[in-house]
Amino acid sequence: MPAHAVIGGQWGDEGKGKVVDFLAEKAHCVVRYQGGNNAGHTVVTQKGEFSLHLVPSGILWPQVTCIIGNGVVVDPDVLIEEMDNLESRGIDTSRLYVSERAHLIMPYHILLDRLEERARGSEALGTTGRGVGPAYTDKTGRMGIRAGELFDLSSEDFLSRLKRTIEFKNNIITKIHGEPPVSLEEVYDKCLNWSQRLKHHIRPTELMVHKTLSQGHNVLLEGAQGTLLDLDHGTYPYVTSSSPSIGGAGTGMGLSPRDITSITGVFKAYSTRVGSGPMASEMHDSTGDALREKAWEYGVTTGRARRIGWFDAVAGRYSVLVNGFTSLVLTRLDVLDGFPCIKICVGYEVDGDAVDHFPASASLLGRCRPVYEELPGWEVPTANATQMSQLPREAVTYVRRIEELVGSPIHVISTGPRRGETIVIKPIL
Ligand code: IMP
User: Fold this and answer.
1) Does 117 map to a domain?
2) Residue 240 C-alpha to ligand 1 middle, in angstroms?
3) Average pLDDT over residues 74-93
């Protein structure tokens, strides 16, 4: 019963979309287990480039059933738009299912995400503004609306819950934020439209996943964001509101840890981060700017410029520790082609004292200065390489040093956005 998890090892945007698509060729089912449309996964096939926010990255393989698990928060408007776009490009979405237990992102969540950020002023988290945090807040506060409830819109229970919730939200929207209230009728009409459009897609997906596993097929668990944005393990409070790390995979789709046979961590060959929060190895120089432009490091969801840093092995080691990765995928190695010197952050220092672990405190991490090891760069391009033997010696040294520092083997290297631009050192599936 093989379930394989693919998890971001850094602050998201590691290239999980390409990795999941690459592995999905041998999978029966791909499941998203957390996050929402704050994610932006890019997949390139012969049909062109696809930017996916909610739909799992396996959708481009026709044999794959795609599931949005109970741990995901779903904005039905975004989901419907994404499905329409895929259909218009010839991708069948009838094999896409949403867990009846998945919570919905309602219009008031999106509004509150923006109002809360505005109220934080200079301490804003830099959220994506998609309503993800407020939707998870309602889930844990036991006032969320779940996808399965769209089947029962005329029940007294649903109507009174929706009315009570909107009254509560409107108190906050009008009295705290001074903005006009949300209309109950408009939200209810949206729910009616969603229920019409999505009724064939909302299912008890936990049962579907277990059935697939019991038939011996591969199931891929697709993480969104990354471990350093994890609500528990990331740079709190500068995190997302879900658990992208391995712990989230079980609860986010109703699987036992015993079902998960491999856990692959995806790391970019350098670091990026969007939004606020500490990043010890951030570059504030022309090398960082050159790297951003060369790699086009701008958010798929918000278009924001990503912050750029050297590979942070201290953070990477922590990520390996909390996830127990059985293998790593190193992406975007080709972006480093042509840089004369490449640095790896191997430790931190605060006021002259060494810090050898990834601190829990964002304020302490913010004061950490990186300790760098410098490695020679390479002239021969790694772009489009498909074999280790095509990599220049310096690039191999860099890859091996990362493995050594984070303590986990690299089984796949990505050297470009297309499926074929991949070096498989050891097959993951
Ligand atoms: P939220 O998830 O929209 O609440 O945003 C919280 C933090 O996570 C912000 O710093 C976002 O920029 C960051 N974030 C959320 N989703 C992603 C992602 O898919 N990639 C990278 N950063 C993300």
Assistant:
1) yes
2) 6
3) 98
